[in-house]
Amino acid sequence: MLRLLSVFALFAVVSRAAEPPTDWIDPTTGHRILRLSREADTSSLYFHQDAFTKDGTRVIVVNREGIATINLTTHETKVIVPDVGYKPGSSAGIEVGAVSGDVYFFKDRTLFAVNPDTLAQRTVTKLADGDNMSDINADETLLVGTYTVPDPNRPPVNTWPPPGTVMHASDGRV
Hints:
With about 170 residues, the protein is mainly β.
């Protein structure tokens, strides 16, 4: 029994050691670094997505529960849109409007906006197949994105070239 308790105690110490610190001093710059999120797998938005609320008191993030805000003073996390995913590393799908402060998000071919204070949501527009939204302009009147027109003469991307095909350059190089 004592051996079992020792194993559990060791596991508890190792588990706590894996938790990153909440703040530390960067050895190179001497600046204090403060970790805002306490939830695993929390992702910040990309720099051009204006991730701060209009009043500057919260930052928009994405975590396992959906789109959330983190209060910059209390570090409280609040989910504002549950079950909305975001692909880290991509620059599309979530934008903060400079005029309204609404958070625009894309789900099921539809663009929505949510007010981060009241949580009121509205549908902005439905996007057609091939439409993709990647940004919104400064006064929130235009979407930036792409529209892909399918080429009926080109085979689907995942079938060309056929598996096993060796491609050659015009000079014969493989």
